[in-house]
Specification:
This protein is of the alpha+beta class. It is built from three helices and four strands, in the order E-E-H-H-E-E-H. The radius of gyration is 14 Å and the shape is globular.
């Protein structure tokens, strides 16, 4: 498990920047999904059960002004930065694993 910091900037304004830290990359990717789910709940408060597909999640990620991760690398005792494309790839792997477990 590698400590991971998620950096989010939803709007162009620098004041909109936030960060959250997680114990692992997988927890961080689940956190990104939760951010999107919360966005959908705010956008559609009258819908009790929200569903979405991965392309909608990826579109949401792309519309964010910035989204990146810093993942702790024990070998160099430092954090390595990763961009939106890397995050989308990790989310895809995570959701594919979860779907295969559900079957």
């Amino acid at each position: 498990m590698s400590h991971t910091i998620l950096l989010v900037q939803p709007a162009a304004k620098p004041e909109s920047r936030t960060y959250t830290d997680y114990e692992s990359v997988n927890e961080c990717m689940e956190g990104v999904c939760k951010i999107y789910e919360e966005h959908l709940k705010r956008k559609h408060p009258d819908i009790p059960s929200i569903t979405y597909d991965i392309s909608q999640l990826f579109d949401f990620i792309e519309q964010l002004a910035d989204l990146s991760c810093l993942v702790y690398q024990k070998s160099i005792n430092a954090y390595a930065p990763y961009n939106k494309e890397w995050i989308k790839e990790k989310i895809y792997i995570l959701l594919r694993r979860q779907a295969s477990r559900a079957n």
